Batch of 4 targets.
Target 1
Amino acid sequence: MGKKGSPRSPRPPSMHVKPSFGMKNHQDKCLENLLGSDPSFGRRASGGDHSWNKDMLLNGLKDDDKRIGGSVVTFSGKRQMWLGKHSRLMVFAFGLMGSLFLLDSLMFSIIHSINLKNSSHQREPNGLKDVQMDYVHEKKGPTIMYDRLLNLASSALAEKEFRGDSVKLWEEPHKQASQWKPCADKTGPLYQGKLTKSSGFILVSANGGLNQQRVAICNAVAVASLLNATLVLPKFLYSNVWNDPSQFGDIYQEEYFMDLLKDEVNIVKELPPHLQSLDFEAIGSLITDADIVKEAKPIDFVKIVYPLLLRNGVVHFLGFGNRLGFDPLPFHLQRLRCKCNFHALKFVPKIQEIGSLLVKRIRKHDGARSLLDKQLLGNYISDLPPEGHYASTGSSKYLALHMRFEMDMVAYSVCDFGGGETEKKELQAYRESHFPLLVERLKNSRSVSPEELRKLGKCPLTPEEAALMLSALGFKRSTYIYLAGSNIYGGQSRMHPFTSLYPNLVTKEDFLTPSELAPLRNFSSQLAALDLIACATADVFAMTDSGSQFSSLVSGYRVYYGGGHAPTVRPNKKRIAAILSENGTIEWAAFQDRVRKMIDEGQRVRIRGFGRSIYRQPRCPECMCKGH
């Protein structure tokens, strides 16, 4: 499976004939609308049976017509002999034949309708079960908020499809990005090395999913170095939300992690036996999020945690999400966090191997393209190929999209997404069930209208809005789009506007067989690692929510290892809401221009600002080195 030297896996048929996400029927209808009635476009492979049935029925009608025509000739030849005697019989015969003809036509219509219905039923999307929320039981029609802009986008994409692809779309717009190189693995000039005597042991039980756990690990490394403590390999708390029992060694290479960081911090796999039986809460060594403020400064850990270490020899951080702030922090600790995130946390071979299969099949190519590939996939991706090799092998580009439109996020936002009263009641019921504190807070605070929330940029982008953004940027209808995650609220009704513009939407399930995915099937964090790999190594990465930790980690990886050749599309939700509010009047050229300016501003090369995430914006002296 994906080992070096293995035959290249063919591109799965889904890329050509079965667009992912279970939207095939909607895509074909849209294609017909875009390209008119030209019979050379939009043909369905599944339409063969229907055409054959129709031809058979039409031939049957022609045979009936011949029989009817023969009868008419016979009647004409003998009409002089029996016209007067049998006039009533003749009227009856004509009436009978007319009835038979009408009955035949009626039967044809019924059979035709049944064929269409059966054909539609056979094309019912299978992938929809992966993206439709169980909370929504009834089947809904498409939910559309910007019908006029969708029509303009559809026309623009149809016109653009037969033109050459713009190279600028797939490149970083600012050359200064290539001047920054990774160097967090190099020791800083002022670092004196770790002290020989440890102050005690630090345990961390990290909560959340893959992204939150990763942040917690690297923050724990920095805190252990700050307090001159020995770090025990972090544990991951089991959550009913994630339903994943994975631990550190199931996702990351333990020995590699410990060895790479050994010069900065002591790391062990387990506590010494004499400390394992301690009741940490009873001795005061259990530290929860309530004990340490969010984005705490180093001095907070020195004052609160260090005395406990010296007294008890051990502390246990329970949760430990964003407990360590980004500034102010000593240079060597900031660099250590970068080294942890971008160098020390390597996925286990199992994830690297399956991830390499996924990337190879999306690209139709076996070779690595950048340092991103080598860092994330290790030896499971071959070395950089000779120049010009990509073109000769037909390697294809793809855009990866992280679409944050899950049920919990949609409900928590308290925004209106155009689904009417049914949707409002549904989301309110979900809030009352899952976010009772939010409901209580909303009752006791000043009411903010959904319209105002949208203007403030507080609403997650819908799939429809994401599609309009991509079309305004100039991505062609035929662009292959990898979708990270699949729990899109509203399922088919929400995705219809997106897939009507971009039918080549795929997920990891389209490229990997059930047996290939089986080792990761019941482990959400390990499956999320595949999405991280596919997004980080994509030619272009687009997000719909810049505040997402997943998007932040992916975009940070692309900045750190991309060499200025890994563009990221990061919308400003407040600005795009203002642009979309003019749906009824704005012309397509003006819409394109404003969206492109918004994205271009987000792609400008900036040094990390004070207090900004080192994981999302590693372009700073602590993490990267600037060349010429």
Target 2
Amino acid sequence: MDFDHHLTELSASSPCIPSGEDFHFYYKFTEFRRPIEEIARRTQSMLNRIGAAENIWGRGSAFPADVDDAYEWLVNANDDVLELVDELVDELRRIKKEEGEEFANELERKMKVPFHIPTIKKPQYAYNIVVDNANQPFEHVLLEKSEDGQRFIHPLEKLSVLDFVDKENIDDLVPIKPPLLECTPFKLVEEVKGLKELAAKLSTVNEFAVDLEHNHYRSFQGLTCLMQISTRTEDFVIDTLKVRNHVGPYLRAVFKDPTKKKVMHGADRDIVWLQRDFGIYVCNMFDTGQASRVLKLERYSLQYLLQHFCGITANKEYQNADWRLRPLPDVMLRYGREDTHYLLYIYDLMRIKLFTWSKESEGCDNPLVEVYKRSYDVCMQLYEKDLLTENSYLHLYGLKGAGFNAQQLAVVSGLWEWRDGLARADDEGSGYVLPNKIILEIAKQMPVIISNLRRIVGWSRLPYVERSLDVIVNIVRHSMQNAVAFEEAALRLKEEHAASLSNVVPVKDGSEVPQTKVGCAATGSIEVQNDTCIDISGNCLFSGDLEEECFQHQDKDGQGKVISNCLPSNFVSASPTIPEKTQDAANVIALSTAKGNGEVLKLPTGAVNAPLLSYSISEWKHDPNKKVKEEIKLEQIKPSDNLPSLFVLDNSEKSKLVVETPSVASEKSDPQKKPVSGSVSTSTLVGIVTVISDSDSEDMLQLKNSNNHPGENSLVPRKRT
């Protein structure tokens, strides 16, 4: 007999049987009494058979007929079952204790370290981290300003490169080899007391090594998640999420102290992250990444230096891990320590080698001085916030080669601006809100109903996309109606793309120059800062679901190295031709070199968070006599006066889409210098786009006037408390 089937039937029928006085009333009628007696008979028979199943219950007696005895029998049977469950759980725990750890370790070795763990509570909420994502330039409030008030003065400007070059006789230098990692005192700093003790120890040493771990995928500007510091005798890891507000006050002075050497590797990003998050400005830094370039080593990554100088094989699988994770596993702490533990020893060996080269290269530039000069230039960078301008969408990687018309370009602009607004308001990474590849695909197909959009994005793991399908469709429909404003930009993009395929780039004076392939002198590879990492050959380093890894930690292993904003003045790697399939990859590389007078040129969109240019880069020629920088004509494009600005009013009001028309004065201004007016809270809202469902006509777009103001999740930046 199928016990489960009959029990289900009995359970389903029992609520239909009357109870109490109603039962006794109906029981007097034959039509009711007979089925009830049949149910009772079948139930008793089933219980008897269950009770007789000794192999199940361990009880040989039949199920008692008396109600009280039956109740006691069931209680005892349940106790037996629970005891059996307890025994099985204990056995499972014993097996887990003996074999589980080994299995878990093996599984951990085989599984890829996730770059994003969605279940982690955002540190901005967990630790009350206040961020300012307003579409206004970053203020270096701790720095003095120039006499004309136009720029901030870095503390290094009052010092010379020669102030930091080693004064002692390096011939007598004996490298100090560090003890084994397991034998070195280590402290995890998670409280202000530990931070104070660390500051006191650093004040007694002459040099220390520094590195940072960073997360950019779940924050608009990025968050420094960890700071590693090593002296000659100790290792420290600072949880910069937990003590964020205290790092600057306690460590600012020692980092600024020009008498203390700070040793870092590939510090281009670390320098500006320290400024942004802690107000720390580094003076007197030795960059082992720059030293490896001057020494012309086989590779320039920290992984290579550890193997080459120390015989250490570094485990770099955690370089793109989600460093927001708390508590940090031991394996991640070890990875962090390895980045600084051996760095002072490498620094010693490199200085000796550089000094030897200096003696052998009479009449040439001093290699040791050159390293300090490059390190000085890296420190001189000042953090610049990524600002939304009228032409920001032109920085989208892959846009130039997409061949979009004016309608499609208008869609790109609308989606870019919508994404920027949400990312700023909710302090999310742009790639988390809406990845670049999805922007391009939506613009390519221009879906005007939700079902068509769903076919493009699928059932994505992007929460902002999932809950904003109707809003995105409205952006597409409205943008298509404003295509006239983008005709000039679309034409210019096509001209630029055609010129790049011909291996020439039009410049401002109307002439053409050969296309130059440039990249990171360290690795020949770069990081494109939104969705896709590519190397100098155009090969994708991170793609598909892993594209957001570009937002993570600055790569130290040379496989996805972030391009330096202070490349050596003598580094221009030219190539006579670039294959068509790699042309766009080469074009996204933002070259920063030096003028004839040694002044560092900076990217117009900022040193850190600005997306790298996706259009052609004209060749920069190092000519001390002319000191001429050829300009990119595309940067002169400005949309016409009817260019709309699109923002979501509120996450809870997805049926409304604010449409704002920037002022003429704003549009005529320099887009690289003046942010879009629609990004501040004083904006005037002039229209609402209603949600269009799948049942609506694809050609219908309804606009309604409204004087509503932005809601909580609008573009008005919020401070988290």
Target 3
Amino acid sequence: MNRIFNYIRGDEYPNQTRTPSNRHKLSHLFESLKLFCKYLAKVLKHLFPSFVSASSILFIILLIDVVLLEFVVYRVGLFSGRFYKVLSDRDLVAFWPLAATSIAYIIINSLMKSIKDFITNLLSIVWRKYITLGLHEKYFQSKNFFYLQHQFDSNDDIINVFIDGQNSSSNSKMQITNRRPLGIQNSVEPILGDLNCMEQNVNGMSEENVVLDNPDQRITQDVKNLCSSIANIVPLILISPFVIGWYGYQTYKTVGYSGPLAVVVYFLVWAMINGPLTAPIARVIYKQDKKEGDFRFKHMNLRINAESIAFYDSSQSELNKMNQTFNELLNISYRRNWKELMLKLFINLSQYFGGILAYFVLAIPIFTHVYDDYSPTDLAQLISNYSFKCQYLIYLFTRLYDILNEISSIVGNTKRVGELMEKMTNNINQSSRYDQKKLIDHQDDFCLQLENFTLQIPDAKRKVLVKNLNFKFKRGENVLISGRSGCGKTSLFRAISGLWNSYSGQIRYFLDPNEIFFLPQNSYFTSGSLLDQISYPAQRQNLGNESSPKIIEWLAEFGLSHLLERVNSDLTWVPEFNWSLILSNGEKQRLSFLRVLYHKPKFALLDEFTSSVDQQTEVLMYEYLFKIECSFMSIAHRDTVKKYHQIELKFTNDKNYDILHIN
């Protein structure tokens, strides 16, 4: 059990700093168990949604099958002794019924074991379905996927939203400490860190502000490992005490207390030998998993940036870096192999010595004439039966030891998944409280207003991008946002869209914030048909007779008619290729601009949406914006776009700004 809570505290792993605790060891253990049980309860709600759910029924069937399988295994194990007796007595009459019975039991044993494996895998799949779908629902709710992927070491959120004259102010300060490195694989990752520090909210940090590493890995890998581990070992945990007690009693009946005592001592001796050899290997596996992740990332990075690397003609440079990363992986793999040599040696020794332990134990009563009244055939049967019981009891203790080691993985995965559930729930609750204060006052003359607006980067340094901005955006007076790169133009859009709350002052909305359409410089293209790319982010709809000619006209107007040929002139046909890979940067911007025409928003935030197109196409884009009567704020660096705006909001490098009226 100490090994399990070493995992909880992170003691098994290198370079893990912990806040020292003055609590007594038992108190620390209790707090760790308390926190684990809290996360386990969250997971169990998904594993068993009701008593009549598919997972509950499958679990009961699995438990019954495991119990019956142990009974069948016991019966099969005794057949060897019975065959010894029948063959030694040359009893042909008893041989054939025994042979038929043994064959039947073997078939039943094989069938039940196959059913056990089938139900275990099926239960793991069902559990993964329940948890993953539940996580997905929360992951894509209230933009959780964005906030979990953009966490900072320190944050001092000052949220002031002013909608329809209602001031919503919420100040929450937090300081993130001991952030774990990203990119660590799950197998021997530092699992729980210092639970007591988290429970006490060190430095005033609340649980909802804890930085989570790799939320995508928690959903894709940790959930899978958790479901597989629970399905495999929980039934065994429930029946192991009874099975061990039964076989211990059977060995006691045969040779007395020396039978079960010898097995227990044998198990403890080898556990004490193998235990210290495991911890160093765990640390090496931790490093190896990290190197494996680095190597996979190198290949993924090469795939994503293949065209740029080819243009740079930097194949040799990338080859050297790739081989360097791979050599680091090989070196740690060699180290692991050498360290495992001694461990495997003692494991093999324990297995083979276990095979003859029964004969050493039986030698005592045999040579002390305890079984002198047994016939040779009866003694052969006794030796065979006891050998089976003793070896199976050793196997049960070994399995129990493996189960305890596996529990550490369950503890870690449960904590990681439960922590993610809790974090997303907190984000949703915060967003819900925030949305409840959004009272919409529809005014035809204005879109939004910034009052005493000071924007900061939400990281530890809290760099100020713009200070005390006061600006009122009137419908029809389109605004050009200009300034040097890095001065905060796109960051302003993040604040208006609600993605960044690292600002003071007020944002007053005169329209529903959900009606604001954002068009980034580098657009995202989802999987699906050409219609899906144009209608994004709306879900796919049936293409009406009126929409089809307009879309075809837009494609022709912006020089994208050749995309129709790629989809066999069918806007709803789903191709196998990746849209992001076949489109140039200019095509991406033109195709993403059609989303504005498709949705016809009242207000749009346009972030350098013409940076990769020619001036003629740029003129056409702005003309279409006027046709659909869309008010917009756009970020641009070209002077040629000024004529399409009435006001220029120019950011300077000294955190100030200028508001210029364009004639």
Target 4
Amino acid sequence: MPPPADIVKVAIEWPGAFPKLMEIDQKKPLSAIIKEVCEGWSLGNNENFALQIADATNFYITEKNRNDIKNGSILRLTTSPYQTAVQLHERIQSSSMDAKLEALKDLANASRDITFAQEFINLDGISLLTQMVESGTERYQKLQKIMKPCFGDLLSFTLTAFVELMDHGIVSWDTFSVAFIKKIASYVNKSAMDTAVLQRSLAILESMVLNSQDLYHKVAQEITIGQLIPHLQGTDQDIQTYTIAVINALFLKAPEEKRQEMAHILAQKQLRSIILSNVIRSTTAINDEMAHQLYVLQVLTFNLLEDRMMTKMDPQDQAQRDIIFELRRIAFDAECEPNNSGSIEKRKSMYTRDYKKLGFINHVNPAVDFTQIPPGMLALDNMLYFARHHQDAYVRIVLENSSREDKHECPFGRSSIELTKMLCEILKVGELPSENCHDFHPMFFTHDRSFAEFFCICIQLLNKTWKEMRATSEDFNKVMQVVREQIMRALTLKPNSLDQFKSRLQNLSYTEILKIRQSERMNQEDFQSRPILELREKIQPEIMELIKQQRLNRLCEGTCFRKISSRRRQDKFWYCRLSPNHKVLHYGDLEESPQGEVPHDSLQDKLPVADIKAVITGKDCPHMKEKGALKQNKEVLELAFSVLYESDEYLNFIAPDKHEYCVWTDGLNALLGKEMTSDYTKSDMDTLLSMEMKLRLLDLENIQIPEAPPPIPKEPSNYDFVYDCN
């Protein structure tokens, strides 16, 4: 007979004694189990003891997490969280430097456990650490010259413990004094500082800025972009990542009126070129966290355009109208007459003619064209930039199209407005950065006016594609669709520079796009004749079963998921995989992202598939209903799913990407006997069905398949023609 479900067999260690094998009854109170263990080793005062998981985490067993104990687990009897907190609280105040260092090291490790953290915080431990940072380090700085490594370690472990304790979200960030902020900022502002101390200090500043608007103002007064720049010029990618994260946090939390000012300072300090030369083009490969921070900086930089994008042009504003006059002057300079020559009516007629040549919809008052938002005034800004900085190309496009009389002229004004709107959609101008995205484009870090240059390349592409398509005004939307496809395909190749992007576009001519479309159409060819449709219906269940098996096999391999917290870089990972017999989900926490599969026996928790009631996705997931900026992110919502089991218990997931999201939601639905409805399943079905159809019809190439099956011939009058083998 299998053992009762509530009985768990474990080994329990105690320093200096042989481990004990015990059966733990999960129905018993935890205090009773600890008392029984203490009595086995003749230990009194059992309330001063607790059980820990005997692994690298050393997490305490509590009534809340005791169900995580599995058969074969190794536990350790140790002092209770309260007693440990009291001891460490005393030890870190020791007058002995070595004892203090050892105590802070132990505190940094113990603080990862929320049970211990709660006890230490209850003893006012956070205040003690901040006091040590504010004043205690002054005393050690005198010893720094002779004990520099020791001083660095002391401060490093103090700040590490502080970061770990704050990461649990028990204490509000608003409680910290200006003196503490000044001290942390001073470690960042120093030219020579211990790497570990600098990392922790940058991490603390980032958290302060992101978690409190009040602290943002205090931090912004203490550190400047100029003081952060030197940290980007080193070779330590972790320090560079933390530094860009602080800059992003300051950018994100800055009031709208200050963001343009901050952007101006970043340009003055040449932040873009420093990142380009020291990070993007360095010999060190860019890791995921750095890629994310560069993506965030890219998004925040483009979001500076939102104000212009959402500003309508005032047709009565003379300064704005002068920009349109400037566009006309640059394009038709040779033809322009002096403003004071001719009658007013004649000049108006000439302006109307020129505005028509420039491709505006409203020839009389082109300012009306810029009242649409988006793109608003941003389109006019782009046009003026193109006219001034790429004057030859601008004049050529305008004159080339204004001289055509065959209705194939490309309207520059209308095209520029629609193109600007399209580019804003592609680059998601105005949207907050995604928590999971790493999609930065190196080419946008190669120019101070990268969006305007991007527009200049794309408007020339649009004109070229228009000519290749021999389009007329009726084909405007078709041309824009082709141009969008050309831009998107070129961007997916992640060009390193704007010139490289331009050359990629040269290879994506309209003819090439047609070939690509034709190829894709052939791969997805859908025959409509009745025999083919009947064959498709017959094959479909086989293909669906194949997809189902693939999904279940992927669940058996497992996936590493990231636990999203308010502190992104302190990533905590967990792994989940399906047992080979498809009956149990095994899962458990990991110290770091694994290389390859994680074996079942290293995953402590399990959930029987039979207990699963439903799979919930998106905003209906419990962990997406929590408050907080990270939870409101659209892309995170699209990757979230939860498994409902037992009495309203949930196992919450956030997939690393859309592909894994589809695999897991499909696989879990398949386990529950439900339909697999993801986009990935539809795509796989189309691809596999198309391939299978083509294979089966290979021998029928160039043969006309009749709509109806051929008639069955009449039976012969006799069967004398049958050969008798006997």
